[in-house]
Structure formats: C-alpha cells, structure tokens
Amino acid sequence: MNTITMSAIVVTLFFGGPNGYIPHIPGATIYMPVIYFLLKTAAFCFIYVWFRAALPRLRYDQLMDLGWKRLIPVTLGWLLIVAAVIAWGWAGLIMVPVVVFASLFLIRATRLGAGRSEEDVVIPAIGRPVTHAPRLSPVEPSGGEP
Question: Contact at 8 Å (CB) between 67 and 73?
Fold first, then answer.
C-alpha cells in the first residue's frame, strides 16, 4: 500500500498528475486524465519495485555513515563552488581546485588519525590515571578505640 501511495504522490507532484495527450475522440476527454494518472502510477510502481530489488539495503549505521561522512562534506564543497560562481561569475571556478585540495588534505588527515593507537601518542601522559574515587568515610576500620 505504501508503494502505491508514494507512487501516486510522486506522480501528482513531479510527473504532471493526470495531464497528458487527450485525443479528439468523443467521450474520451472524460476518462483520459484518470487513465493517464493510473498508467503513470503503475509505471512508477514498477520502477519503484525494481529499484528496491536491485539496490542494496543499508543498515542504519551504514546509512548514517554515508550521510555524515560522505554526503555532507560533498554538499559543503559543492556549496562553496556554487557560492563562488554566483559571487565571482565564471572566475569562481578557481574554487574547484581549492575544494579538491582541501578535501584530499582532510581525507589524508582522517586516515592518519584513524590508524593511530594509544601507544602512538605524541605527548605522553603525565602522572597516573585515576581509576576510582577515593573512599571518604568518617570512621576508619582500624579496630582500635570506639
């Protein structure tokens, strides 16, 4: 039911809804918009089902990784390029190598940081780490005077 509903919404919003060629046949002008809408909806249902079957299903963590680590940086780079072109005209395309260089630099820095372990720290830790808070009690269990 969700597939049919989404197909009908997509057809209505993006594919012209019931609009289409209406032949000059007596009586056809009444039914043709409904027929076009149903044909478009059926075609989109078919495409929707094939895409669902052909594309891999991502787990939630993989989808979040794709969004945060891949799509948002690409979108920010594209935003910089578009803003430069709008502000400076075609001379703003000089921003393309800047964005590519910055992205390669950030990718390299991320890979270097991911390969580090605790033994590879640049600045050694001073002192010893506190594993638990000291116990504060008013009476010491010394076994002496009450």
Answer: no
